Amino acid sequence: MLTMRWSFKKAFLVLLHACAATLPLIAWCAADSVQYPDNFRRWVHVASKVLMPGANPQIASEEGMRHIFANQRAVGAFTSGDFPDGSIIVYELREAQQQKNGVILEGERKRVDVMIKDSSLYKNTGGWRFERFWGNDQGQNALHDAGVSCFQCHSKANAHGYVFSQLQ
C-alpha cells in the first residue's frame, strides 16, 4: 500500500512538472495562432472609402471598397488614440464594381487585415499584432514577418495609437 501511494505521488509530481514546463509553450502557441475575427461585419462600422482603379498608382494595392470595423474595446479609443489591450480593428478590402448608372457596389472580398492590441506581447510593433487574410481564407495568416512590414507604415500614425482611421 505504501509503495502504491508513493508511485501515485511520484506520478502526480512528474505530471505536474511536465504541465508546468509546457505552460509557456501553450502561451506562445496561443499568442502566435491565427486570430480571424468572426462576425466582424456586425461590429461598429468606423469608416468606408472607395478608391477606383487607376485613381492613384502609388496605392494600387488598395483599389476597391474599403471598410473599417472595430470591436467595442476599440471604439471609445478612436477619440484619444489610446487603444486598450483587447482592441481589434479590421480593414476589409473588396472589389468596387461600378454599374452603368454610376452606382458603386461591393464585389468579392480581396483581403482582410486585422490589428489586435496586446501591449505585453507585441512591444516591437507598438503593442499591435497585425494579420492579413486573402479573399475568404480565414485560416492562413499571409504575413510572415510578425507584422513588422505593417508597422513600418503604421508607425507614421503614432500620434493616434498607430491607427490611421478615424471614427466617422
Key terms for this structure?
168 residues, Chalcone isomerase, globular
What features would you describe in this structure?
It contains three helices and five strands. With 168 residues, it is of the alpha+beta class. It has two domains: 1-33; 35-160, Cytochrome P460 (Chalcone isomerase, 3-Layer(bba) Sandwich). It starts with a helix and ends in a 14-residue tail after the last helix. Mean pLDDT is 83; it is low at 11-30.
Summarize the biggest pleated sheet. 5 strands, antiparallel
Q: What is the radius of gyration?
A: 22 Å
Name the average pLDDT.
Answer: 83
Question: Which runs of at least 5 residues are low in confidence (pLDDT < 50)?
Answer: 11-30
- The helix fraction, in percent, is 25-40%
CATH architecture identity of the largest domain? 3-Layer(bba) Sandwich
Shape: globular
Tell me the count of domains. 2
Strand content: 25-35%
What CATH calls the topology of the largest domain is Chalcone isomerase
Number of strands: 5
CATH class of the largest domain: Alpha Beta
Write out the strand line-up for the largest beta sheet, numbering strands in chain order: 1-2-3-4-5
> Please, what is the CATH homologous superfamily of the largest domain?
Cytochrome P460
Task: Quote the distance from N terminus to C terminus.
Answer: 72 Å
User: What is the multimeric organization of the chains shown?
Assistant: single chain
Count of separate DSSP helical elements: 3
Query: What's the helix-strand series?
Result: HEEHEEEH
